[in-house]
């Protein structure tokens, strides 16, 4: 289980959700990456599986965040664990 939140989030987006790696930047919003609500839910589940960090309470607002903000959320959860 990787604990590097950036690697985890970028990997899930590229490998599981089939987002073009060239489009995955810290400033890219999940909406601009064309992730629908099911994809966002899968992202949250996969982050929990990979890191143990549960972001499900933030599900409604995560779709409006950037990749960098999701990485920070995942990382802050790891620091608290």
TrEMBL record:
It holds the Pfam family PP-binding. Residues 3-78 form the Carrier domain. It comes from the Bacteria. SUPFAM superfamilies: ACP-like. This is Carrier domain-containing protein. The lineage of its organism: Bacteria, Bacillati, Actinomycetota, Actinomycetes, Kitasatosporales.
């Amino acid at each position: 289980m990787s604990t590097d939140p950036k690697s985890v989030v970028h990997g899930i987006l590229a490998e599981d959700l089939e987002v073009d790696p060239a489009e995955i930047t810290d400033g890219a919003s999940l909406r601009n990456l064309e992730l629908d609500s099911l994809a966002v839910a899968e992202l949250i589940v996969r982050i929990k599986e990979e890191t143990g960090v549960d972001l499900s309470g933030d599900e409604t607002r995560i779709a409006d965040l950037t990749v960098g903000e999701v990485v920070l959320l995942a990382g802050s959860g790891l620091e608290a664990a």
